[in-house]
Give the backbone structure.
Amino acid sequence: MDVSPFVFKPDLYVLCQIVHDWPDDKVHEILSRVAQSCKPGAGLLLVETLLDEEKREARVALLQSLNMLVQMGGRERSPGEYQCLLEQHGFCQVQVAHLGGILDAILATRVGP
């Protein structure tokens, strides 16, 4: 039996608690690879703990950010920081949803090539 890989382009990519583990250079590498895989109109859903824009109020996120910095070189980011990262890799229509717990969701759409 021929076992050739089934190649398709998903409509949605999900990265859950991945991006915060890495410093900016590695995040750019991850997002670049996802962007190259995405067809126009595909979505990218990031599930992360968000900092507030001033980085003063989300105490759990601030502690987690310090932990990520010490252990992995990564950090928590604000919605604005995620939007900037995503737009640099061809994603637009960035939407943020605070889910009521420690995790938040960021949904963005890939624009054309």
